[in-house]
Amino acid sequence: MVSALESQDYEVQEVSIGNNYNLTPPREDKPALETCADEIDEDQIQEASSKLNYSSVQPKEDQDAKLVQGESSTIQGETNVTIQHDDDELIGRQEEKAHLIQLICKGGEKRVISMWGSGGIGKTALAGSIFTSDEVCSHFQISVWVSVSNDFDHIYFFKTLAAELNSESPQVQEKASQLKSSLADMGTEELIEESTSLLRGMRYLIVLDGLLTLEKTHMELILSKLPDDKNGSCVIITTRLVTAAELYASDKENIYELGPLNDHEAHDLLISKVFGNVQIVDVAPELTEETKVIAKKCQGVPLAICVISSVLSTTPRIAEEWRKATDELMSVINEPNPDGMLKILKNSYDQLPYYLKPCFLYLAIFPEDYNIRRGRLVRRWTAEEYAMDYEQYSAEQMSERYFDELISRSMIQPSDGGCRVHDLMLDLAVSLSTKENLMLKLEDTTSGGSSAQRTVQHLVISSGWKRSKPEFDRTVELTRLHSLTVFGEWSPFFISVSTKQLVVLDLEDTSGLTDEHLLHIVGRLRRLRYLSLRGCKGIRQLPNTIGNLNDLQTLDVRGTGVVRMPRATVRLLKLQHLLTSGFDSDKVTPQSKRRRPVARKRNMMSCFPSPAAPASSTDGVRMPEGTGMLHELLTLGVIDATASGAVLKELKELDRLRKLAVAGISAENGKDLADAINDHRRLKSLLVQSMDHDGLQAFVDSMLDSGCSAPKNLQSLKLQGRLVSLPQWIKQLEKLHKLTLTGTRLLQMQESLSFISNLPKLAILHLKEESLMEYRHEGMEIE
Fold first, then answer.
1. CATH fold for the domain made of 87-257
2. Which of 49, 503, 555, 612 lies 20 to 30 angstroms, CA to CA, from 168?
3. Locate the NB-ARC domain: which residues (predicted)?
4. How far apart are CA 769 and CA 100, in angstroms?
């Protein structure tokens, strides 16, 4: 009887979450942000106070031939980003930041500095601001940011050390790049020796963010193996545990407690979050005293202030309404334990509109401290039907709006190309989704004993879970499973006749997956709408049976060994996103969980070209004839034009394309590409890579000479190859936000920059290897 009732309850939940949540769009009284999917996801342009933001470009290896499919590159080694911290996060922390920088930059023996404080107090924000500060970046020769997850151990650390290492030394960077490709095959001793060899003789900074337990065995091994050349190297540990802080710090001087903000600082943060850069006396003077009372009740905890601010920002600016809106939150703010904070966060969840609740709970799928790519999350939501078409907006555009609204409500934090979830927010999402039988996460601590089999919609296999098929079968019931996400090692028994209802299969960076496994998967799962094989090095080709996935919307094979799409691809008539790349799969490394690049916030008029590996002439995937039949495609690339001459002409039929990347452009086919994209009004992002000296020039000349019209709505343009000068038609791109040049070898730097500065909307300019002939090797800064 009990099990029957539980089954009926689950069915009610499934109907509720699978249908009711997606029937109605956001209420007009609380509109979501208007940033929709037909804006470029990858180019979340940061507000610029000047005409151009020439951003630092310090790639570890060239990944630019890969189309940025509405999201940042996720291949480790890509540091083509400039972190711009929200100044709000550091209100009241400037003195602490200055003190810690002084402590960190001391010379002498290797030191361990522990920063500890309660959850939500701002440890990661402060550590991140220090990590990317000019003083610290110029002082250390090597910097590494390591996010401590539940699967953290010394092996994880030393693998991450090589994968996340940032250095301005080309020799060190090249050695790290070579090491990454062989990490999976190394034994423990070799891994430690090779990883630490990168640090020897160098002054390094390593941040271990979010140590959750004492981890004594692993931590003592890690700290003992890190070299000490007595040149001022430093390790920073952030933790909630004072015991861990005291255990690992070099001495008492290196233990730093991060306390709450004082009342004045808390009030400043609250005002900044609610009203932005304006003063409260200018917009709502009658609320001045009320905001002071609210800020005081938050007891100086930044996370609590941010959560409450998100509530107040949508509340009418009337003192009584504000008191009413915050009474429930404040009833638990005085609780000193973590449960008190969770209750506050739960209240913020309860106040979410119905359509955002399943989107928030879905975040529980991802590991702690994980950088979730915007495109990945939005496309998964769309495949799960968390959003539906509404008026002029597509389902994916509605999902984009939901993403932006979660950010505006401080439920998630914006990051490079996506978002992060604060660990306390993630705890809440996991707790609620588990309680409501939405998700089961199999981790190394998951019991495989005699407990009842769980029926859930979303199953997550964590990297630490390695059990047998009988344990798997005893733990989870698969017949109602909607999504399967694997972060660890693949096992064939994950897929069976019971998983035929799956609509999302996300195997990004899954190890041990082979072509034979994929053949079995595709044969079983006919209802898939989202299939990601990104970073799966064992995948070399797709089976022709892929064409049987009639509902497939997203197919991601970037970072695999796939260089040719099967002929059956043309049967995927609902396909919207085909994310491909033709790079050698042996060079692919797993996704970074969070990027803390060495690039630093600079003057808005600074320019840093930097070396990048030359692009290959085969950096694309061969498409079959008939690609023009895929009329629903929004994203396509990178495709190989050298072997897809007919396909280039078929691009003209794909008039819904928003993002396109083409490699292998030559003097022979440059005109074909120009003709194909002529007047593609919806195209927002274009990457063109030349295979020879004349290919790119042939393309840009054809855009002008053949009477072709450049896509007027382009927001991102990437040109890779030789050019005599910048094409005049670029001036017509009035909506261009981002321009990236690689290997263009433009002769007149000042003339070129002057030309570019006349583009009215341009915010970001990336100049990479040999983009300007006057500057070819060393970094340059223009004030």
1. Rossmann fold (3.40.50)
2. 49
3. 95-276
4. 36
